[in-house]
Amino acid sequence: MCGIVGILGLTAAVPRLMDSLKRLEYRGYDSAGVATVSNVELGRRRAPGKLSALADVLAATPLEGNSGIGHTRWATHGEPTINNAHPHMTDRVAIVHNGIIENFKALKDELTATGVSFEGDTDTEVVAQLMTSYLNDGSSPRDAFSQTLSRLQGAFALCVLIKGEDNLMFGAREGSPLVVGLGDGENYLGSDAMALAGLSNQLIYLEEGDWVELTRNQFQIYRADNSPVDRDVSFSQVAATMIDKGNHRHFMQKEIYEQPTVVAQALGRYLDPINGCVKLPDISFDLAAVPKITLVACGTSFYAAQVARYWIEQIARVPVDVDIASEFRYRDPVYTDGGLAIFISQSGETMDTLSALRHAKAAGQHIASIVNVLGSTMARESDLVMPIHAGPEVGVASTKAFTCQLAVLAAFTVQLASANGAINETQVANYVAELEHAPALMAKILSADAQIEAIAQDIAGARDILFVGRGIYYPIAMEGALKLKEISYIHAEGYAAGELKHGPIALIDDNVPVIGIAPKGVLSEKTVSNLQEIMARKGKVVLFSDDETPPAGMYAHVSMPSAGDLISPILYALPVQLLAYYAAVEKGTDVDMPRNLAKSVTVE
Ligand code: M6R
Question: Which residue has the CA at smallest separation from atom 4 of ligand 1?
């Protein structure tokens, strides 16, 4: 949830740390801070709130030094005050941390009993004090760090600077990601490839339990048992320039409008339009023999999983379970021998989803992941990785990752159905052709966004908004509600349209707009009847549909292009994203960094 970066450089560290923190701010923005070693002394600047507040502090009180660490915080333990902001520092070390130290209370009590006092309430400060106590007892920096690690329980990525050591840094990974970046006479640490974009594209992803000692010219990685280990170097394709709003007002807006391009890009990796077939990455198990599929994810990725359940069951005729990752392992799921568990995650680091993946893996399921971040932990722990190729998604509200996840899941479904014989070659070719058509239709929808903007401006004053859909459009309704609530702070719920009469219709009056998602098809008449029931109770209905003759009395009808059943859910994701975006703009909220949230949720 927090973003961390460390630089052992040849030039001033602070401007580079701030640059990196800008790219990491999506991971948390409750407070930010940097620390450097300069003339053997440790120096630190911190500020609650966004990075701009830290920039103001640094402008007023600059910090020198070529070696430094930086942090952007999503608060877990302790309010977002200056005392709880990282780096946490003693007279010997400065530390930044992402994750949660679960046994921090016991450690804090132990240190307090020896006379140590604490300035804040965070679990991280305990790590700084613990390492200091080992240094004070005479341990070398390396020993003090490994002794400290041996005492910690929980999830953490750590980066440590030591007083008097301008050419030394330590990092560790247990449960939270940490990457080593290799430079020319410089070395770096960061939460992810984004942190190090612009610094290094030669990355080493630490494995669980690894820790690392770095100087400018050397590094050594150790396993948890302190034995040295070599890890592969991979090449990052994330460039600093990719993380740029361009001419757009917000990253979310840019990412919404990028969708035709990135979905085309994603489909380009999975479809062979000339031969009318799908090409998946190499699979180490027999797809045709998979008896059951389990889909697990959180938030928007969970709604992608819900859409995919309809596709997989209807087209490939394979039974599917869909679970919210944070609930999955606690319900002690019954696995089917030879089953395939697919984990969907933009970041590939979401702790709930990663824990679910490990649970399924331990149970012997085939493991696949659908991720945007290629070097992510989920990708590295999967038998089959299906990247979504959406490019960096910075807005906290997921948009292009959702439609790219759907595009990949649709291609996967067609391949699965082809492999198990549920559909023939002609049907495969027809589905491929349909998918190929999606980007053009998406572009058409986006070019007619003015009407949605006007509707959003009209309904932005509502306290509650409902989204309804049936069948495969029910998860799109839930996704619309999630998008709206997370960035506009308007209370919203997504319901299966037929469920309204079982309770939620009691909420309807002329102040509650209802967004109906009802493309023409077998269920559209039923959905429209449910919308009539809402209108009969003075509800304000906005209909997204390709039906050009909707019932009279609607507050608004947004005309959608007609499309096949496979790509239609992908298309209907766009108007609900636009509605949320423009409602948030109308309300003046912080669209890209909505309150209380972070992009990458690496705590349980
Ligand atoms: O990185 P992941 O896809 O695993 O993230 C899952 C959710 O945290 C994420 O989709 C979240 O719900 C978004 N803020 C929704 O816009």
Answer: 345
- Sign of the C-alpha dihedral computed for residues 142, 145, 147 and 153 taken in this order: negative
* Ligand 1 centroid distance, CA of 475 (Å): 15
d(CA 299, ligand 1 centre) in Å: 5
Q: What's the CA gap between 469 and 466, in Å, rounded?
A: 10
Same domain, 440 and 576: no
Q: Is residue 597 part of a domain?
A: no
Distance, in Å, from the CA atom of 513 to the CA atom of 515, rounded to the nearest integer, reads 7
Domain CATH number, residue 438 = 3.40.50.10490
The residues annotated as belonging to the active site are 2, 599
Ligand 1 first shell, C-beta below 6 A: 298-301, 345-347, 350, 353, 396-398, 482, 486, 601
pLDDT category of residue 242 using cuts at 50, 70 and 90: low
How far, in Å, is the centroid of ligand 1 from the Cα of 75?
A: 18
CATH of the domain at 43: 3.60.20.10
Given ligand 1 and candidates 478, 593, 597, 601, which is best to mutate, with the most ligand atoms within 8 Å of its CB? 601
Last residue of a domain, one of 389, 415, 445: 445
Reading the block at residue 474, the tokens are 């029910």
Bond prior to 87 in cis (omega within 30° of 0):
yes
Quote the pLDDT of residue 241: 64
Q: What is the DSSP letter of 175?
A: B
What is the distance between the alpha carbons of residues 73 and 51, in angstroms, rounded to a whole number? 10
For 268-319, what is each residue's pLDDT tens digit? 999 998 999 999 999 999 999 999 999 999 999 999 999 999 999 999 999 9
Return the minimum-mean-pLDDT range out of 31-40, 333-342, 536-545. 536-545
What predicted TM-score, i.e. pTM, was given to this entire model?
0.83
Query: Distance from the CA of 302 to the center of ligand 1, in angstroms?
Result: 8
Q: Tell me which residue range forms the domain holding 78.
A: 3-242
Q: If you take atom 16 of ligand 1, which residue's CA is the nearest one?
A: 397
Ligand 1 atom nearest the C-alpha of 396 is 14
User: What are the DSSP E strand ranges found in 471-536?
Assistant: 491-496, 513-517
